[in-house]
Amino acid sequence: MSPHGTPRGLNPLFAPPDLFFRVYDEHKEFRNHLRKGRVEVSAPFRFPKFFVTNPSPCPYLPGKVERKVFTELNGRNAGELNEALGRIGFRRSQSVAYRPSCVDCSACVSVRVLAEEFSASATQRKILRRHADLEVNACRPWSTEEQYALLRRYLASRHPGGGMAEMDEQDYADMIEQTPVRTYVIEYREPSVDGRPGKLVGACLSDQQADGLSMIYSFYDVGEGARKGLGTYIILDHIVRAARAGLPYVYLGYWVEGSDRMAYKASFRPLERLGRDGWRRMDAPELLPEPQIAEQLPARSPRRILIDA
Fold first, then answer.
1. From the first residue on, what is the mean pLDDT of each consecutive set of 10 residues in the chain (309 residues)?
2. Residue 155, phi then psi, degrees to nearest 5
3. What fold does the segment set 112-281 form as a domain?
4. Three state DSSP letters for 209-239
5. pTM for the complete prediction?
6. Is the dihedral of CA 115, 117, 123, 126 positive or negative?
7. Which of 38, 270, 282, 298 supports an S-S bond with 114, CB 3.0-4.6 Å?
8. Domain map (residue ranges) of the chain
């Protein structure tokens, strides 16, 4: 499981038949949100079929069991369906949209940053200055050996026993390239030398939606001598990109109260969480310990490019 909540290989078309079972033809919550006007679609499409995974140990809360409901994204309305489901808490993995559907737990909460209102803390401004020399490019979703090598080093250091630890080159290519929606790989490189690209130090698979950027999975250099705060910087850079492109949100996946692995997401504010009554701000002091500082982000280097709106 990735830091942004993305499962590996969740594809109903190629799964063993005993691994998944049907639950709905028309997902009730999605249908209800559609009726109430919380989900907007511009063209009619057939309601997707939803499935649910068998229970398995939760990767975030000891002693808990997780289960996911999911559907396949395909056809000419795949992007529109993905965005509609994203607004009610679904995430994308390859050609699958999924969401936690645990029987006795609702700890996983979808969160998104209000990009145009974002105000960096003192620590975040320091990180922005530290990495201001990096060259950032939004690339088409094609996997490279350089990206895969960086991913392997990242997983070996940060998630050696995780579900992605044994990912091979083909698995990585599938994660990057199997996308039915508008997707980019954002690369972060050291400054170029003599016209040659600098060292790749970070990357993020990101979807561009009508209302924002959805960070699917990020990885970066964490070895000896690596730059500090690259993970935070990648999120900050996405917030800047979204604001400049006029996109209101950056979707960070799921936040889990009580999980140290998820605590960092609460420092990007203003932050909204998805509840039964829709999206609401997370303003509780105990969730957002740093004082808010109303200061503009520093100007970006002209080398930076934004995802075109």
1. 38 34 40 49 65 92 94 92 95 96 93 97 97 97 97 93 88 97 98 94 97 98 93 98 97 92 93 95 55 35 36
2. -65, -40
3. Aminopeptidase (3.40.630)
4. ECCEEEEEEEEECCCCCCCCCHHHHHHHHHH
5. 0.79
6. positive
7. 270
8. 20-108, 112-281
